[in-house]
Amino acid sequence: MDNNKDSPEDAGLExxxxxxxxxxxxxxxxxxxxxxxxxxxxxxxxxxxRFLGLARDIVIARLFGTSDAADAFFLANKIPNFLRRxxxxxxxxxxxxxxxxxxxxxxxxxQVRQLIAAVAASLGAVITLISVVVIVAAxxxxxxxxxxxxxxxxxxxxxxxxxxxxxxxxxxISLTALCGAxxxxxxxxxxxxxxxxxxxxxxxxxxxxxxxxxxxxxxxLAWGVLIAGVAQLLFQLPFLAQLRLLxxxxxxxxxxxxxxxxxxxxxxxxxxxxxxxxxxxxxxxxSLLVSGSVSWLYFSxxxxxxxxxxxxxxxxxxxxxxxxRKHAExxxxxxxxxxxxxxxxxxLIAMPASLALVLLAKPLLITLFFNDNFSxxxxxxxxxxxxxxxxxxxxxMAVKVFAPGFYARQDTRTPVRIAVVALSVNMLLNxxxxxxxxxxxxxxxxxxxxxxxxxxxxxxxxxKEDAFQFASGWGLWILRLVLANAAMGLFLYSQAGPWxxxxxxxxxxxxxxxxxxxxxxxxxxxAVLFAAGMRWRDVYR
Length: 541
What we know:
By secondary structure, this protein is mainly alpha-helical. The chain folds into two domains: 25-471, no CATH class; 478-541. It has 23 helices and no strands.
C-alpha cells in the first residue's frame, strides 16, 4: 500500500508547484490515481510535443525538401541525438532511476541531494570531454560517419560545420535528461514530457526567422538545435527547485551511488541503445545511396516515432520507476502484473498504429509534405521506408516495456547479450538487403526485424527469470484486437481510395479526408473492442 499523498502529475505543469518542498520530496514515483493516469498525462504532454515535431518536419520538408544540405543536417543532428540516447535518456536513465529509487526509499533527503549533485558532476565532466574532442576533431570524425558525402562538392564541409554547431547539444540535453529522470522518479511526469516541445519550437522559429539571413539556410536548423538545448535545460530547473533537488554539480570522489550507477551503466550503454545504433547504421549506409535517401529515412522514421514517442516512450517513463519500487519492496507478483498490463497496452496501440501507417503511408506523406520541394518521387520512396518501419512498431514499443523489466532489477547484462544478437541481425540484414538492391527500404526493414528479435528475446528472458508471466484472459484479448484491427483496416482501405487522387486535391481537402480516416478509424476500432466485450477496467491500473 502507498501511504503517500496523491501525486499531482495528472494536474499538469502548474499543479506541481502547489505542494510544499517537504510534501514533494516525500511523494512516490508511482503515486497518484493510477499508472494509466500517469501514462495518460505523460502521453498527452508528449503528444503535444510530437504534434509540434510533426509541424517542424512539415516546415523542414516544405522549406528545404530533400536537398544535399538537408541530408547533411539530418545526419549531423543524428550524431548528438544518438549519443544522447546513450548518455542521457537511455543507458544513464536505466541505471540512475533504480539507484535513485533505492536512495529515496532507504536514505534521507540530504543524501538524495548529494547523489544527484555527484551524478551531475560526473556526467557533465565526461560529456564535456567528449564534446571538446568531437568539435576539435570533427573533420576526421566526419569521414567514417558520412563517407558517401565526400563525392558531393561542399556536402562534407557543410556536414562538419553542422556537426560542430549541434554537438554541444549533447551536454545540455544530458543535464536536461538528468533533471527529467529526477522529476519522473518523484511522480512529476508532465514537465519532462513537455520539454521536447521546446526543441520543435526553436527549430520552427529558426527556419522562419534565421534561415532567410544565411547563405546556407539549412545552417539555421543546426543553430536551432543548440538554442533548444539551452532552453530545455533552463525550463526544467524551477521544477527541481520546488523539490529542493536542484542539481548543483559537486564532485564527490568515491561516492557509492555514483559507482553503482557507473557499474550498471557501462553494459547498458550498448544494450538500451540498440535501436539507435541500428538507425545510425541505416543513416551511414544511406549516405552511400542516391541523394535524398537520408531524408527519406528521416521523414519516415519521424512519422513512425509519432505513436512510438507518444505512447511507447510515455509508458516506459512511467513503468520504470514503478517497477523499480516494486523490486525494492520485493513485490514480485505486482512486478509481473505491471509488465503484463504494459504489454496489453502496447498491443492495444501498436497494432492499429502499425496497420494505419502501412495503409495510409502515401496519403499521409502527401498531406503533410508534398510540394515543389517534396516531389511525388519523394512520396513514393519515403512511403516504402515508412511501411518497413511501421511493420516493426510492435517490436520497438515492446522493447521499451521489456527492457525496464531488467533494469528495474539492476540487471544490465542480460539486455546487453540480447542487444548484441539484435544488432548482429540488423547488420547482416543491412548488408544482405544492400547487396540485393533494396536501398533505403531494406535498411528500414532490417531495423524493424532487429527490433522484433530484440523484443522476443527480452520477453523470453523475463519469463525464464520468473519476472513475467501472462495473466489470464490473453486469448480473449488477442481475439478482440484481431477483430477490431480487421474492421479498422477494411475501413481505411475502402475510404482512402487510390493514393494518386490525393495529389489532385487541395491541402484543405487532403486534411479533411485524413481527419475522417483517423477519427473514423479510431472510433470504429474502439467500438468493435467494446462490442467484443472490452471494458475500461481491462486497461485501467
